[in-house]
Amino acid sequence: MKLTFWGATRQVTGSMYLLELDDEYKILIDCGTNMERDIDYSQPVTNKAFFPFEASQVNLVLLTHAHIDHSGNIPMLYREGYEGQVLCTSPTAELAGLLLQDAANLHLKKIKQAEGDSKKKKKKMDRLLVKGDLYLQKDVEDSMSNFVTIQFNHRFRVSDTAWVTFIPAGHLLGAAHIILEVKEGDKTKKICFSGDIGRKNYPLHIDPSDEIPEVDYLLCETTYGARLHEDKISPEDALGDVIKRTCIDMPGRLIIPAFSVGRTQALLYTLNKLYSERGFQPIKVFSDSPLAYASTKVYQKNLKQLNKEAQDFQSENDTLFDFENLQYIQSEKSSKAISNYGEPCIIISASGMISGGRVEQHIAANINNAYCTILLVGYASEGTLGWRLMNGQKTLRIKDVEHTVLANVEKIDVFSGHGDQNDLINFVKKQSKEKLKKVFLIHGEVDSMEAFKEVLEKDGYSGIEIPEAGQIFEL
């Protein structure tokens, strides 16, 4: 069989790997949006296929988790002729449906903004058409009708010669490592696709499983391959300290850019614990993301898929997320009105990297406010507004307006959903150095991959590859 690396190669986003078995059965593992895709907008609009392979020839899709950089191009796969199923866990299917619907709504909004006869509008429309991934609501509905859910740790036969098992990865509600067993003649080969590896003791999420079987080939993400988490205190202590200094000791405003799925729920749960267990006065909290509101309901519904601490908290308090002075914001009009709220408050809004979304308007409206703190709580890709703030940039250009950064900028990493270098090493160490034939490093920046490769080699692992896009390996 052969494995082709089509995404998250020498970069973080766009996870997509095509496994072709000897009997020509083709399995696509993840089908994510490439947020770092280089697009030549000078090229004319063509009917060129979106994928570098024939979508109609794929037999099955396996999805590690719902985040858009792993799931975001599934509707495009169906538009280009794919007719098979998508296998994943039940929470992943629910969250992926919400994320894909949100993406489709954003596509529709961009199309409407580009409609018109002016040169500027036509240019904008041409750029959208060249980019290509403009699936809409109907495409999402067609895709979701083909999702089939599989329980964790259940070995499931997908073809005459292949079996799949989803193992808890801890990164997100429903997130999984995927184990594929493929029979070739009288031999069985095992491959593990890590997905995104979570960290232990994260708010809400179960810990990554320690029950990873020994495999022949391992694909390991490297988002934090060169880094260790800095904060050694609890999420309550870390967040509580910032709130006290920003909103209690002085009448300030705290803005937290956070992904709508996963990160926002961890923050709301931690705020609930601060108010219910530590006597914090209930400061006004605005959760400004319709997607976060819908995702929070999925988390509440899937209580049994969360960790024991969260289940115990639910038993004692009847809710994980609702608390006094929490307000979910739905409309854009209400979102803009938050700027007129004069009392101390906390605004949690997407996107987490400050790369689009409502949080941009909150940053723009408050970046000159010395009584405002912008709290960065997760990974931000190079070049995003979040990355620029994290690296101390003194001015920011937001929607063609240059702003001087007068607000306080702080960062904590206790809410990062990715395991750090030590967690990744422990994940790899579950494998036998003698049995493991190859380790493929994916889903990370090049420096991170190279640093992690060096660590593994010093520890005695060999056959470590850093694939390029389109590179094929015979397994």
UniProtKB/TrEMBL annotation:
A Pfam family matched by this chain, by name? Beta-Casp
Molecular functions (GO terms): hydrolase activity; RNA endonuclease activity
- What UniProt keywords apply to this chain's record, in alphabetical order? Hydrolase
Metallo-beta-lactamase domain location: 13-237
Domain Beta-Casp: where? Answer: 264-389
PANTHER family tied to this protein: CLEAVAGE AND POLYADENYLATION SPECIFICITY FACTOR FAMILY MEMBER, INTEGRATOR COMPLEX SUBUNIT 11
Q: What is this protein called?
A: Metallo-beta-lactamase family protein
